[in-house]
Amino acid sequence: MTYKDKAKAAISKPAVLGEDIDLSSYVSSAEERPYQGDPSRLPSKAKEDMLGVGISLDGTNQRSGTYIQMDNTAIHSSVGQEGLEVMAIGRALEKYDWLLDYWWRAISVDTDKYTANVELNQHSGYFIRALPGCKIIYPVQSCLYLTKARLAQNAHNIIIAEEDSEIHIITGCATASSEEAGLHLGVSEFYLKRGAKVTFTMIHSWNPEVAVRPRTGIVVEKDAVFLSNYVIMKPVHSLQANPVARCVGDNAVVRFNNILVAPPGSNMDLGSRVFLNARDTKTEIISRAISTGGNIINRGYIEGDAPNVKGHLECRGLILKGRGVIHAIPELRGNLVGIDLSHEAAVGKIAEEEIEYLMARGLTRTEATATIVRGFLRVDIDGLPPVLSAELQRAVEASEKEIM
Amino acid sequence: MDNVVLNINQLTVAVEGKEILHDVNMEIRRGETHALFGPNGSGKSTLLMAIMGFPRYQIIKGNITFKGKDITNLPLDERALLGIGMSFQRPPVVRGVKTRDIVAACLKGRGSGEIVGQLAGKANLTDFLDREINYGFSGGEVKRSEMMQLLAQNPELSLLDEPESGVDLINVVLMGQLINKLLEKSHRIRNRRHAGLIITHTGHILDYVNARTGYVMIGGRIIGEGNPREILATIKEKGYKECIKCAK
Fold first, then answer.
1. Which of A164, A195, A376, B41 is most solvent-facing, going by the fewest CB within 10 Å?
2. Helix, strand, coil % in chain B, rounded to nearest 5
3. Smallest Cα distance from A350 to chain B, Å
4. Does pTM surpass 0.80?
């Protein structure tokens, strides 16, 4: 059975989680966009939108590579360092026969109707690869930008970090319009070979009419390290994602940091799943959710299937204002003697005692609250290059006023 | 009157409807350090919290004047800005907020990161600046962190709630040094501007910090006032019962 056959069979299969999206209400074709050799010449509005999600196109000297997809066209890809490949997935498939060996291996094509739709109506996506032993100095940036109303953006991305390579990727997904409906379907498959290190920082900026269904699978081999940071602080009609990482080699490490802010009208169902399938593997999932009126389901799942594995899960939520709901669902499953899994979950308001403590130092109530919220959203990430830490911090600070 | 930093007049305070302090009077002048003794639950911390202005501590009678200004109804943060600071006995952990950020906030723009580093050096807390405030701190670290914040805040009146409790002998000496710096003990008496009110159970801290006046509080009332060393000696020898007897 081919992938296409499996996809056809699954095209009506609802996802296990999240509101069901009617795919027929979206179009899957958009006009072809011309290739843009110099992305700094893109319209200033597009560049501004992209900058908001960490994509810097004016003076990209702090980026090792760039990929930009507008609607369903890859309009730019470039690399600035040896040992790095960044290109549209179609080109990569033409170039490398072996790439098919990675196609739908980290996630099944028939997971649900969204994966099926990406297979049947796929329009580009990116291929990023760090060659063996190569340490990619600056982050690689990729942007999926949605401009056409009611478009379903179907991207399939593959990221391969070869043995002992190191790569930092910043992905920004944004919409040009602040009101037009759209659907973003992005399949991302990560393969980390022995000793590789990948940090993947994704910043999303949608609008109250956009639905988002990313589908992500990560395979982490021996001694490899995968760090994921996900930030969404702008409204979205409906987001549901539950990426799954499998530690298949000894000593593999996976860490997910999720920062979610749900304004009124936003519905987010975000989780992270990690399967510790090999000896001495470790994971940490840290999720911070703030509702200023929107709804958040904050999930986490860790399963330990091998000796001496360790995992910790933290789902913390603050309801700052409005009538939003935060539902924390942390889950742990151990299948063996000697595994060490733990979680902490909390949903609530800022403790008055903490506000008053800061007020006793001379901060006003508003300043004290802002300081605590800023601290709540601050996730210190080991191993993240300063330029990415700065991007993350900037994304958080940019939304601070709206949160307060 | 110009030298009076704090004047408390007939202060009666309730917490959640229950009256804790009754008709408390106190006057602290510029440059003076006063010590407050009393058994557990006698209302000492309540007095400090009421002076600082925590909303839970409702003033139902009397008033508090700071540098001649009636602050009885002034909010907590405004009292801090006027020049009142407090070291907490058990401060809360504020997850995600770094010690460095709070010390910097206490400086209120009066200094740079360099000063934060210097203060941390003095409090032997350099390695704690990038840790979340109070998270996983030992008893002594908490106390030194409180002093570091107060030194940054530089208040004219410092309210110190049991600064030596949970602190080992070596660090009590350091705490003494920090408090002396805060209260400008190295200045000549007439040049001192800073005043302090210290709650102490054991009196250990008074081996390192001189106090001018001592009070004994029992059952929410100040029942005695005098030389702090004499009061402490009496408490050590005969317990608080003797103080109650004396008061009668």
1. B41
2. 40, 30, 35
3. 10
4. yes
